[in-house]
Structures are given as structure tokens and as C-alpha cells.
Amino acid sequence: MADLSVLSNTLAVLEKYNFNFQKKYGQNFLIDSHILDGIIDGAEITKDDCVLEIGPGIGTMTQRLCERARFVIAVEIDKKLIPILNDTLSEYDNKLIINEDVLKVDINELCEKYNNKKPIKVVANLPYYITTPIIMDLFESKVPLESITVMVQKEVADRMKVGPGTKDYGALSLAVQFYSKPEVILNVSANCFIPRPNVDSAVIKLSLLTEKIPVRDEAFMFSLIRASFNQRRKTLVNGLANAGINGVTKEAVLSALNEMGISETIRGEALTLEQFALLADTIKKHM
Secondary structure of 209-224 in the HEC alphabet? Predict the structure, then answer.
């Protein structure tokens, strides 16, 4: 089978099927073998692994995944790519191609059927417009995961791994770090794609934590986190009191901060994940 990381081979496939890139799906295909190998090495794919690939495109990375993993589930939303994938992956019998929006797929059911409920590894070159919803859906749906290794916009990767007091720190940083340990494993130039995107990318590996920071109500904590960053320049007290979260009053927030020994003038961007968890538990107590 032709190596699709070679530009001429990719162009030949696109011409054969008269394929046109769909802007609505944010399609950019990788054409760099070193980056592809770096992603699979970084994800630590072995013959024991069942891999979920989101957005396989024409199968460039899928070919390599099929060679390294025990089984590969490739979920592709664009129906025009399905005949191409059936062609480019025809010699592999350890794969399942699903034509669906990954947000509508029952991944728990797939884990049960193809991996005996054991944790899977996710590998994806995600469309940038839907990066965060897909990652958060994987976390929140309690899918058995070992790791998520994804190509994202470089600034999104930066937001995922930073800590308090930095301009990129926000709700995404806290959500990712609540569920996983983030590590950027590759920076990727826009020149490594066809068509060439307007931004540089990064590959980030999110290794799922076996023990999360204890908090009584995760959903309540994240509602506080989102509210505290919706208006970054406001103090935490004003941001939370005006957010319309059921039962959260200015008095409850003030009482919680005082009990925690934190200044009433602090902003949300200064709090650590541990402090947000404690804040959520303490506000609940004062509600």
C-alpha cells in the first residue's frame, strides 16, 4: 500500500476520487512521516492496544496505527472519505471504519465490544473548531481511557498545560488538568499539512489520572470555574455572585473565601485547581 505521508501519493488518491476539501469539517491532511511517527511513538501504541482514531481523513495515520496496534476504530464524519478509507486500508483486517460524528458514537459500547471494557488510547488530528467539545466529551462520558494524543492548534495546547497567573490559564486548563496530565510532545509547522492551515499546531498527550483531586460535586465545581473566567477582570466574588448559579450568593462566596483564608479581592485566574475544588465544597456548605 502506498505511503500516504508522501505528498505525491496523497495527491494521487485525492485525484483518483476527485476529492475536494470541506472547509466545514476543518480538513487538513498530514504529509510528514516524521510527525506521524512522532505521534504514534508519543502515544506509545503497542500490539496490546485498541486505538480510537477520530478524523482519519484518507487514512494516512490509520495505516501506521493498524501496523502498530491490535485493533483500530476510525471514526470519520465525512461520508465522501469512506470509500477512500476502504481503499487505502483494504489490506488491514484489524480495523473498523465508522461514518459518524464522534460526539454521537457510543464509545463505551465500542470499548466493551472490541477491548473487553479495558482502557483505550485515542489518537486524533482534530478539526480545530471542535477540539474542546470532543476532548471534554471523552472526559465527561466516563469512557475507559488510558490516554488522548491529539494534534491541536498550538495556542490551545499552551492553554491546556499552563498554571495560575498566566494569560492562557482558563477553564480549559483546569478541565484538562482535572482529568489528565498534559504534555506537549511535538510542535508542528503549518507546512506539514495539505492544505496548509493558517496556524502552527502541536501534538499534546493527555495521560488520564488514576486519582483525581477530590471534590464532592464535579459539575458544580466546573460551573464555578466557567463563571469565574467568563469575566476575567472581575473579582471572583462578583463573577460568581452575578453568574446565576443556583444557590450561589455573594454571602456564600465571601464566607467560603474567608474560611479558606483567601482575599475577597482575588480573581479566578489566581486560584489553583485544588483551591477551586475546596471552594466548591466550602460554598456548598454555606449554601
Answer: CCCCCCCCCHHHHHHH
Please tell me the distance from the alpha carbon of residue 30 to that of residue 279, in angstroms, as a whole number: 43
Query: Which residues are within 8 A (CB) of 260 and not within 5 positions of it... i.e. 6 or more apart?
Result: 275, 278, 279, 282
Alpha carbon dihedral 123, 276, 156, 5, in 10-degree steps, equals -10
Given a contact cutoff of 8 angstroms between Cβ atoms, the answer to whether 119 and 146 are in contact is yes
What CA–CA distance (Å, rounded) separates 272 from 7? 45
Contacts of 191 (CB under 8 A, 6+ apart): none
- Structural domains in the chain, CATH included, are 7-208 (3.40.50.150), 218-286 (1.10.8.100)
C-alpha distance from residue 115 to each of 73, 180, 217, 253, 265 (Å): 11, 21, 30, 45, 50
Cα R_g (the chain), whole angstroms:
21
pLDDT digits 0-9 by tens, 162-218:
999 888 999 999 999 999 999 999 999 999 998 888 888 999 999 999 999 999 999
Would you tell me how many other CB atoms lie within 10 Å of the CB of residue 74? 26
Cell of 173: 486548563
pTM above 0.70, yes or no: yes
For residue 65, pLDDT beyond 90: yes
pLDDT at residue 245 tops 90: no
Rounded CA-CA distance 55/68 in Å is 18
∠ CA 41-46-52 to the nearest 5 degrees? 85
In the structure grid, which three cell numbers stand for residue 124, read together?
A: 486524533
Three-class SS of residue 142? coil
> Counting runs of H as helices and runs of E as strands, what totals does the chain give?
12, 9
